[in-house]
Design a protein that fits this description.
Alkaline Phosphatase, subunit A, 16 strands, single chain, eight-stranded mixed sheet, 429 residues, alpha/beta
């Protein structure tokens, strides 16, 4: 099983994934202000996405060729996260954004359930000069997962030793050296007080883990790794950087280097998408989004720019599916055993309230999740049939064979109204 999470910053308004030909009941958002409308359905809507008269809306239209693999999720809530400009680690952790990396996030939890040579790969675009940043993934309390922003650094880190011509004996020698270091640490450990010995044990475990990873690099077929093209990997244009990250992600999955990838595009940050001809940052676009259109325009200038950015990202996502579909696996392809989840760290809006958290899901993990080609809208907040992001994440863990009763923090406002335990029957096969 493979898992991919793609977080885009600056909010994902429900209208951006609402299919043409399907109407859901909306109501005014209880938070008011810029948050606009939110889900007002009294019961669950579960409709076929490819039925006559239905069509994907313009912002996610590049995914049209993969409609049969798509489940559009509307009506989920994540009020425990708090809302605002970004929900940070809470978006994938289902806990308060203000608590930082409070606990493990869903991507890291799935990575632990299905580890590979590299347990978890995180790549992304922040729009700053940092080579590595931390924004939304954590492997445990205060254990932030690094996101590689520099594609060259990520490429060399993942593929450098494989492409460097290391023989099995060379890789084995490195593993042997690391084993010796770990052994030395264990011998010293017995001479230290317990607190210091515990810290040293963590170093020993880390060296042992690196050794095991190094030894397994010889399993990777170097012919499956594309060349590092300077015009793509060395580019400072954010669109090229993100394109390079998607290529790295696909390669890491196809070669078996990892089973879990998290990609981020402006999560917890506000890049300028110069490669798309946009000259203002995402924060400015967020404030321009709900402005009135100018004469002769169907949408506001801010909304037009936001849609342009989303369409670019959706095309990258569609190409990733193309690549996984092209690799045979069992009686199908790699994509048949993969699930991809696309969402925004800001939930439904630039200034999010988290009453609505739209998501796009592609794939069903080889049938462990119910078939796709669906528009699935849960009941409104507090009504019977409502669901939270924590319940969705628990469902993914059930499908992955690592079941939990609930993931993240329960919404206390829903206790007594919504059963927040166990997997979602609408999704788990």
């Amino acid at each position: 099983m493979r898992f991919v999470f793609f977080l885009e910053g600056n909010g994902l308004p429900p209208d951006d994934i609402q299919p043409i030909g399907i109407v859901r009941k909306d109501m005014m958002n209880p938070k008011g202000g810029q948050t606009g409308k939110c889900n007002g359905e009294d019961a669950v809507l579960d409709l076929q996405l490819s039925a006559p008269g239905h069509k994907l809306p313009d912002p996610i239209a590049p995914l049209e060729r993969h409609t049969k693999r798509i489940t559009l999720l509307q009506g989920l809530s994540g009020r425990v996260c708090g809302g605002g400009h970004s929900n940070g680690f809470g978006a994938l952790g289902a806990y308060s954004a203000g608590s930082g990396a409070r606990d493990i996030t869903i991507d890291a939890a799935l990575a632990k359930a299905h580890p590979a040579i590299f347990q978890h790969l995180a790549l992304g675009l922040k729009g700053s000069s940092e080579n590595i940043f931390y924004c939304c993934s954590a492997s445990g309390p205060n254990q932030k997962v690094p996101h590689y922003q520099d594609p060259v650094l990520a490429y060399n880190m993942l593929f450098g030793k494989i492409l460097g011509g290391n023989t099995a004996s060379a890789v084995g020698s490195q593993a042997l050296l690391l084993d010796h270091v770990a052994g030395d640490i264990k011998r010293i450990e017995s001479q230290l007080p317990r607190p210091e010995a515990r810290k040293l044990q963590e170093f020993a475990d880390a060296f042992a883990s690196i050794g095991r990873r190094q030894a397994r690099l010889q399993e990777i077929d170097a012919k499956k790794i594309p060349a590092k093209r300077d015009e793509l990997y060395a580019s400072t244009v954010e669109t090229k950087q993100l394109e390079a990250h998607f290529e790295i992600a696909a390669t890491a999955l196809i070669t078996g280097l990892t089973n879990t990838v998290t990609l981020s595009a402006g999560a917890t940050s506000y890049p300028v998408w110069k490669g798309l001809g946009i000259t203002v940052d995402n924060h400015t676009i967020g404030h321009m989004y709900n402005e009135r259109p100018k004469p002769g325009q169907s949408v506001s200038e801010g909304k037009a720019m936001a849609i342009k950015i989303r369409q670019f990202n959706m095309e990258l996502l569609a190409r990733l599916v193309d690549k996984l579909e092209a690799v045979p696996e069992g009686n199908g392809s790699m994509m048949d055993n993969t699930v991809i989840v696309y969402l925004s760290d800001s939930a439904e809006n630039h200034h999010s309230s988290c009453f609505d958290w739209p998501m796009v899901m592609l794939g069903n993990l080889g049938g462990r999740l119910k078939p796709n080609d669906r528009f699935l809208n849960f009941a409104k907040y507090g009504a019977k049939g409502h669901a939270t992001i924590g319940m969705l994440y628990a469902t993914l863990l059930h499908a992955a064979g690592a079941p939990v009763d609930h993931f993240g923090t329960k919404d206390t406002s829903l206790i007594g109204a919504v059963d927040q335990t166990g997997p979602l029957k609408e999704l788990l096969a």
